[in-house]
């Protein structure tokens, strides 16, 4: 049975919530909203359709580091080149050239904790 969205939510562990909020807001151009869930604070990536959109959050945890964990691809404002520069300025390591696919373009990088992410622009 095929689902509309195979991915329904993602969670990224980070070591420093405040620093990660700054990094991800700068790199993606999107805001994160702080939420308390059963006594745990998380930073949620806001999306246009909060009921049906696919999103995720950052939480205080133990990152896999050095790009060893799964890769989460995030929509980035502007061009991939602009997102790459913002991410690099915020502490990312760029680990690939820009990759073109039919749906758009993206680049692989690691965040300051070593989480593997893709910055995507359609």
CATH topology: 2,3-Dihydroxybiphenyl 1,2-Dioxygenase, domain 1
Figure out the total of helices.
2
Shape: globular
| Residue fraction in strands | 35-45%
Could you give me the name of the CATH homologous superfamily? 2,3-Dihydroxybiphenyl 1,2-Dioxygenase, domain 1
Oligomer: single chain
Rg, nearest Å: 14 Å
Number of strands: 9
The CATH architecture category equals: Roll
Q: Spans of 5+ residues with little confidence (pLDDT < 50)?
A: none
CATH class: Alpha Beta
What is the average per-residue confidence, as pLDDT, rounded to a whole number?
Answer: 93
Organism: Notoacmeibacter marinus
Protein name: VOC domain-containing protein
Domain VOC: 6-122
Pfam families: Glyoxalase
Feature tags:
122 residues, alpha+beta, 2,3-Dihydroxybiphenyl 1,2-Dioxygenase, domain 1, four-stranded mixed beta sheet, 18% helix
What this model shows, in words?
The protein has 122 residues and is an alpha+beta fold. The chain has a single domain (9-121), classed as 2,3-Dihydroxybiphenyl 1,2-Dioxygenase, domain 1. Helix content is 18%, strand content 39%. It has 2 helices and 9 strands, in the order βαββββαββββ. The strands form 2 sheets. Strands 5, 6, 7, 8 and 9 form a 5-stranded mixed sheet that branches. α1 (17-28) runs antiparallel to α2 (80-89). The longest helix is centred in the first third of the chain and has 12 residues, at 17-28. The mean pLDDT is 93.
């Amino acid at each position: 049975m095929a689902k509309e969205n195979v991915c329904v939510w993602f969670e990224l562990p980070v070591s420093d919530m405040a620093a990660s909020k700054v990094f991800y807001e700068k790199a993606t151009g999107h805001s994160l909203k702080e939420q308390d869930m059963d006594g745990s604070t998380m930073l949620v990536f806001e999306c246009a359709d909060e009921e049906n959109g696919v999103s995720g959050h950052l939480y205080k945890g133990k990152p896999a580091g050095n790009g060893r964990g799964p890769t989460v691809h995030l929509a980035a404002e502007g061009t991939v080149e602009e997102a790459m520069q913002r991410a690099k300025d915020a502490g990312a390591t760029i680990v690939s050239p820009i990759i073109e696919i039919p749906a758009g373009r993206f680049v692989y990088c690691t965040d300051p904790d070593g989480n593997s992410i893709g910055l995507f622009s359609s």
